[in-house]
Specification:
Two copies of one chain form a homodimer. The first copy, chain A, is of the alpha/beta class and 383 residues long. Helix content of chain A is 36%, strand content 20%. Chain A has helices at residues 19-37, 44-51, 55-67, 132-148, 187-195, 204-212, 273-282, 286-304, 314-318, 320-337, 357-367; strands at 42-43, 71-76, 86-90, 96-102, 106-113, 118-125, 155-162, 166-167, 172-173, 199-203, 223-228, 232-238, 241-243, 308-312, 348-350. The longest helix of chain A is centred in the N-terminal third of the chain and has 19 residues, at 19-37. The two termini of chain A are 28 Å apart. Chains A and B meet through helix 1, strand 12, helix 8 and helix 10 of A and helix 1, strand 12, helix 8 and helix 10 of B. Chain A binds a DNA duplex (30 and 30 nucleotides) through residues 16-20, 22-23, 26, 43-45, 53-57, 59-61, 63, 79-86.
Amino acid sequence: MSSNDLSFAAFTGSPGANLPALRGHNAALVLGLLRAAGAEGLSRPELAARTGLTPQAVSKITARLRAEGLAAEAGRRASTGGKPATALRLVPGARHAIGLHLDRDELTAVRTDLAGEAVAVRRAPLAFEAGAEHLLATAAREVTALRADADGAPVLGVGAACPGPLDHTTGVLHRVTGAPRWDGFPLRDALAERLGLPVVLDKDTNAAALGLARDLPRGAGSFGYLHLGTGLGAGLVLGGSLYRGPRTGAGEFGHQTVQWDGPRCGCGRRGCIEALCLAAVARDDLPGAARALGVGAANLVELLDIDRVLLGGRTVLADPAPFLDGVTEALADRARTRGTGTGAPVPVALARGGPRAVADGAAELVLAPLFGTRGGAGAGGAA
Amino acid sequence: MSSNDLSFAAFTGSPGANLPALRGHNAALVLGLLRAAGAEGLSRPELAARTGLTPQAVSKITARLRAEGLAAEAGRRASTGGKPATALRLVPGARHAIGLHLDRDELTAVRTDLAGEAVAVRRAPLAFEAGAEHLLATAAREVTALRADADGAPVLGVGAACPGPLDHTTGVLHRVTGAPRWDGFPLRDALAERLGLPVVLDKDTNAAALGLARDLPRGAGSFGYLHLGTGLGAGLVLGGSLYRGPRTGAGEFGHQTVQWDGPRCGCGRRGCIEALCLAAVARDDLPGAARALGVGAANLVELLDIDRVLLGGRTVLADPAPFLDGVTEALADRARTRGTGTGAPVPVALARGGPRAVADGAAELVLAPLFGTRGGAGAGGAA
DNA sequence: CCACTTAAGCAACGCTGTTGCCAAAGTGCA
DNA sequence: TGCACTTTGGCAACAGCGTTGCTTAAGTGG
């Protein structure tokens, strides 16, 4: 449909690889390294060393990227005994992406550059339960406003994030809690038609985790993003890429049992971490809520050998300290008693982006394919 | 080191892809499809459809595979209105692999063909705590015996599986429970030198899970393999490939908290699922043990959106029915209360292979790279 | 018997990264 | 100041990948 001449969607779809796929893979790889390097950029020899490609291949690839306007030269490096190298950097403004966070009561829309930095932000009230027309109209209005300011740089597409459950691959909503009429609604296609742009849909927690994964080295590193808002969910980044599970159902962190003879949860079972956590929040016992969260975080770290735990969501952002302390303590306790690996406890931090983490991450749904960041091992096929 | 002329380790190491990597990728892909197709094989047009490659490319690739002796023609298909297609199949006997299960009190060694089917099995008593020389000597004796019977087909290497924790990437053991002297021992390299073959080392649960992953369609499908023996561990297959975590620490299923005010576990914390489960086994309350296992399985399914749960390990194999029933019931209960996705409960089954599951899987550690089966997203890099 | 369909290989081709070579542009020692 | 050395990076020729175009083989069906 849309005029996206960047055919970088390497190794997508069918598993067989041909020359265009090879080219796209390497181009995305180089572009991803340039993005991670930031304004200082990377020299051709450095790119060659990191990719394993020959310097000559890197020269050809970067020449193509420069011709497309995606990369540019950025000064010279100090000499190391020979001709000084030319640094190459990403041209962030060459393309833009739009991220939409469709929350229950508010829409947040951002326009970001290629680096993923937000260059424009808009907010609007939203009543998710009010139905499709209201949502589509609001989204269209905000996206149009964001596009009006763009300085000619093409907008690649729109990433949309909303509370789950939903199916990322088809872009269809399932039973959104508190809004049963949305069940089965093809939100992705509806948005794409209304906005006239390609749309990618995902859960809010997944989008946020994908955005946070920008800080990781390529293809490595893992973390769990725990999101405590009106509910409790998680986004999992394993081996450098977002793990969605076959039905976009991964990250249902809130209904794990941590006290099997505990109080009954809304879901019908007992001792769910979400019930324990939210009950503590309701009685203003934030350390208690953090303890419950910490038990779940420890289970997560233990099961998936995760490097890092990041916290976010409205409830956490309103008063981060007790949550950070409580979860840190739970993981330190785990490190003391078990001491797997180095014995150093897994670090806990507040997720970058604050209240904009989900919207920023939603834009990343569009950008990630350009940089070869696999946003989802396990799409789960038929047959 | 060893003369492995099959350079199919495509896209290994450095992320940059070149023509040999492309070729290796496609060759492994085709070989993997042929393996999955079994004795009936697959025709060239079918391979083309499944890979997305052109029929001509498939012809070239399969011609190379036939020249190497890895594939062969296998009769004709019925005509569909034109020239009948020729079926191609894997030649299972073209190469062999050896799998070693180094358990605390017993060694199981298998020699398998390319299809992963065991063609020879040996067992020997083993005292893991007796130290390196005893272990290496026993392993060398059994491997030599297995190789003696091989009918000239090259043995690609040895996969070795033992109780964790250990580091798959370096092949070094950590603190094996009950045998502290093993801490830091480079078992993989010691075995490789003694046996004169390439060796891959992994946790027993990971090996078993990798072996079981053979039954999945390529690149899709996920399951958790729960192994209840002297301890309780798990192997995770996500998106069709084994997930080890950055430090080979994933799958530490036993020390997840499911009753945070429960009885104290050997690890120092409270309410670990392993403690609850083994205590129930000790008092011959298998349904109780199964219930504890079921709670953990439900947490796992919920968190990772897993397709299937497989059970194994000595304790389960000794009397499978109560465990299958208990875990099935726990997952059915979860499906009733939550009903994520289709609402159908996640199926539970006994892991294929029985007492040989780990040894068979260990051989798969050697075979998997030939077929492009990614045995471990997230090897975790430095920097 | 002949038109049609499907399978599979040969030959030419475009394009990938690679290799060999050389000019450019620095450093560092005499 | 000058010369040897190192490093960068482009040009040109090349090997090898899957692709395209065409031909032959081998069936089905009216």
